[in-house]
Amino acid sequence: LANEPFNNLLGIRTIETGDKTVTIECQLRPELMNSDGVLHGGVTATLADVAVGQAVEHHFGGARLNTTVEMKVNYLRPIMGTRVTARGRLLRIGNTLCVGQADVMDDAGNLAGVALVTYMLLDAPAPVR
Amino acid sequence: LANEPFNNLLGIRTIETGDKTVTIECQLRPELMNSDGVLHGGVTATLADVAVGQAVEHHFGGARLNTTVEMKVNYLRPIMGTRVTARGRLLRIGNTLCVGQADVMDDAGNLAGVALVTYMLLDAPAPVR
Amino acid sequence: LANEPFNNLLGIRTIETGDKTVTIECQLRPELMNSDGVLHGGVTATLADVAVGQAVEHHFGGARLNTTVEMKVNYLRPIMGTRVTARGRLLRIGNTLCVGQADVMDDAGNLAGVALVTYMLLDAPAPVR
Amino acid sequence: LANEPFNNLLGIRTIETGDKTVTIECQLRPELMNSDGVLHGGVTATLADVAVGQAVEHHFGGARLNTTVEMKVNYLRPIMGTRVTARGRLLRIGNTLCVGQADVMDDAGNLAGVALVTYMLLDAPAPVR
User: Which segments of chain D have a pLDDT < 50?
Assistant: First the structure.
């Protein structure tokens, strides 16, 4: 995540990679909070996007151009404490689209958010019919 | 948006309010970009969340506790240029849930993203049956 | 919609076409209801999918193979009465993906549901870079 | 599912219940297909909605009034063959909202669709603050 300006602004870093999965983390700090003192929903959405995006990057060894085409997040609990993690996992790797799920956990181990994210491979060849 | 730390980190400010609508803007700057040099999808998602949230706040005059329960964003074009705006509009104001749409526009006037966002009113009375 | 078996089972028919828009309707009848006596959410989702799909078909004159890749529906009110309409409108027509919105209306003219639907053009040429 | 007219029209039946999970199935037949000869996306969406709804019903022993407030489906593969199953699993059981995931499988055991579905408990008491 070295050359990802917004990820760096938030302090997102990768902590684990596996087969079709990547886990990232972010330390909570005052700038990432909303006016209620809990993690801003935009940070949770960013983590979901990045976790699945990193799973795409990891799966293809960073060799494929890609972009998020859509994302859906359900917020299950307010996120407090010291850090948040997001585990992205690829559910479907197609020729053109990759769909992944992100589970967002608080530091007490609660599932605090869940997301479905679709990435498009921008350098996909034409579909074979 | 004075006491919203994450909104301030991104530089989000309200530029227009109307009946059930609020428009916000954010100046693009290097820290908000991804590694491809376009606006990070997490910023777009944040703008969608905030635009609808501000429409909820505006509608109730800031008098109701609320939280995002879910959000869905479609990314329609990469966002470049100097600024991005998001117009949140309430589609349904229920006793417990408020659903809004956010249209995200680039500075050339293109629709660059669209979102549906659900907020819950945390201080809702018990449903009347 | 002549050779669409499931659309025919539900009784969906097109009532209006325009620039990037198609409106469909469905007569309510007991078989389409849930146990609470209102329209089943699956019918509303089907209408959203079909309305945007028909807008894709109409836009390309029926010349492009396509499939739904994802859909998101918000249910805003229970649907009762005698019929329901859904207006699909294309928000973005890309080389590979088309994104549309569907507004679902009850017969009193209330917005009863709203959806974002993504279609993929299966016969898209390879992206030009 | 005895008094669920639309579920009966489609031929949906429960095949397994567990802790926070319910699995349903539907036999494929010509009326449920689209013009490409694969399962209509509206049926898949219906199965996702019903699988999570039945998990809500099962969890509360049928004692709570509820309704779908929103649903998001990703279609991962075309569904063919003789039957389709959907496993609904509750991720979060709140005082007002329940969020579940549905995994839709074809009869070859492939994950063909995935969904996030939010239900509202209509008889929820007022939130305790």
Answer: 129
